């Protein structure tokens, strides 16, 4: 199906369901797959789709051209370059159980559309009266020093000196990696709408005197 179906209420609703327990379209960091869907939306989604709105604002904060990967949505979302028709499988044509998040309902009449719009409006009004849930993630970051002579206490102090709205540092430990070298493994909790994981990793790697590299060891939504 065409990715342009994202502009329909049904497409947005299905995308909102898909992003309910995800921070990104694919994997644990922003990629060109996010850019493909972001550009297909064309405009800021309404609060009626809170998960899409959260994701959209987060991706908007990135420098889109520098994100890695190929600019296409994954196959589970009817992947393809924006505006291009998605591949059609003859074996799946008659499979009524297959979920198509970007599919449009050609048999939907004006009355069904009116009813759905009314329900979406009622849901948005009800949602607006409730305090918004704050999406958070727990992240374990591996911070590797240059060698066994690196001052690990100074390295940890530098990492913990990073302050970002929505970022809270947790416990840490030193883990042997070989040849007498130990890496710093540190936990943090972030608010997904406020903290870019990519930016956080870059800030850690900016401490070039102590840090050789920083990598995400684990990423879990809370």
Automatic annotation (TrEMBL):
Q: What is this protein called?
A: Elongation factor 1-beta'
Chain ranges of the Elongation factor 1 beta central acidic region eukaryote domain? 101-127
GO CC terms in record: cytosol; eukaryotic translation elongation factor 1 complex
Q: Specify the domain of life of the species encoding this protein.
A: Eukaryota
A Pfam match is EF-1_beta_acid
Q: What sequence ranges are listed for the domain Translation elongation factor EF1B beta/delta subunit guanine nucleotide exchange?
A: 136-222
Q: Which family does it belong to?
A: Belongs to the EF-1-beta/EF-1-delta family.
What keywords sit in the KW lines?
Elongation factor, Protein biosynthesis
Matching entries from PANTHER family are given as:
EF-HAND AND COILED-COIL DOMAIN-CONTAINING FAMILY MEMBER, ELONGATION FACTOR 1-BETA
Q: Where is this region: Disordered?
A: 67-113
Give the molecular function GO annotations: guanyl-nucleotide exchange factor activity; translation elongation factor activity
| Listed InterPro entries | eEF-1beta-like_sf (IPR036219), EF-1_beta_acid_region_euk (IPR018940), EF1B_bsu/dsu (IPR049720), EF1B_bsu/dsu_GNE (IPR014038), Glutathione-S-Trfase_C_sf (IPR036282), Transl_elong_EF1B/ribsomal_bS6 (IPR014717), Transl_elong_EF1B_B/D_CS (IPR001326)
In which residue ranges is the amino acid composition biased (Acidic residues)? 92-111
């Amino acid at each position: 199906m065409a990715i342009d179906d994202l502009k329909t209420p049904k497409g947005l609703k299905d995308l909102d369901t898909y992003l309910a327990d995800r921070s990104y379209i694919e994997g644990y960091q922003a990629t060109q797959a996010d850019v493909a869907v972001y550009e297909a939306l064309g405009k800021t989604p309404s609060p009626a789709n809170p998960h899409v709105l959260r994701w959209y604002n987060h991706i908007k904060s990135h420098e889109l051209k520098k994100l890695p990967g190929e600019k296409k949505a994954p196959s589970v979302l009817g992947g393809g370059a924006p505006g291009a028709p998605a591949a059609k499988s003859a074996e799946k044509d008659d499979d009524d159980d297959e979920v198509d998040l970007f599919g449009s309902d050609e048999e939907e009449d004006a009355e069904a559309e009116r009813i759905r719009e009314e329900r979406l409006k009622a849901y948005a009004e009800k949602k607006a009266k409730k305090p918004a849930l704050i999406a958070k993630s727990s992240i374990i970051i591996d911070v590797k020093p240059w060698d066994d002579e690196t001052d690990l206490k100074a390295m940890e102090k530098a990492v913990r000196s990073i302050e970002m709205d929505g970022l809270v540092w947790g416990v840490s430990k030193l883990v042997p990696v070989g040849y007498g070298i130990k890496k710093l493994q540190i936990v943090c909790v972030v608010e997904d709408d406020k903290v870019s994981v990519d930016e956080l990793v870059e800030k850690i790697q900016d401490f070039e005197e102590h840090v050789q590299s920083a990598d995400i060891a684990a990423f879990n939504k809370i």
